[in-house]
Amino acid sequence: MLSAVPVARLSGVIVTIIGVDPFHALRLLVTGALGSRESIGYTLYYATNFTFTGLAVAVAFHAGLFNIGGEGQAYLGGLGCGLAILALDRWLPGWLMIPTAIAAAALFGAAWAAVPAWLQAWRGSHIVITTIMFNFVASALMVYLMVNVLIAPGSMSPQSRGFAPSAQLPAIAGLPLNLSLALALACCVAVWVFLWRTPWGYALRTMGHNPEAAVYAGTNLRRMTMLAMCLSGALAGFVGVNELMGVHHRIVLDFQAGYGFAGIAVALMGRNHPVGVLLAALLFGALQQGGAELAFEIPSITREMVVVIQGLIILFSGALAHLPRPWLQLLFARRAS
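The structure corresponding to this sequence follows.
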């Protein structure tokens, strides 16, 4: 969270240049994100998606892998979730349909991440390049399927038929916020347990810190690469659960709305720890909701301003990641002497 201070100051300078009082803008931003029950609900709804993608990036980071394919993995996770529902929602009861769709989202997201992982592990292809390319492939695949295969009969827009009520996640207080929030919190706990309380998590983190030491300890780097990326893709795929089962109740295009890329900033700001990711996701959710209110109240500040702030967070999160380390090393060295 060290990066929040310079980001806030620089954002204030930019807002001042635009001709707006930065304190008034900050007040509108906070009020829009936290000022009412509805605004808090929207903030938590956005934060749910950021939590999924932030955890996805964090798991890959711990393995020394830079997964930039969260957009495509979220897209395919939504496709898997939607296909399972369209095929089964008229026959399965809700208590069975919902976990089946969630499992399908994880499976499709993991499968989409497994291909770049295999190319990295067995063919030496760079994970950054392949995951970026797969984002475009996922987008093109979804457009083709929605326009030519899954479009509802008689529909003028590329969307599937609606899901049966048994396949819709219950909304909380009539807001887009739904039970996916509980899934996101459960994922935070599960990721923490996996990374810090299991031998697989220990091996994964060892590979990320020192691959040679991991090999010496008997870790199969290829298998661990596949495991890390599949877990990362499954987590990103849960975005489709929140969006399609919780809000749209049908398959639509572009539901992932940049959450995959924002997850990189969330993971960086949260220092790749589930608790930090959750806190950073709440901040990004507040920025998303508060930014919409800010753009409505002050037209000269567009919603793209939120994207600028997110970019600044990425910049300063990377720049300040190791800033305290030399000072801490010096402090402990003096104490030791």
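Residues 180 and 242 are 5 Å apart (CA to CA).
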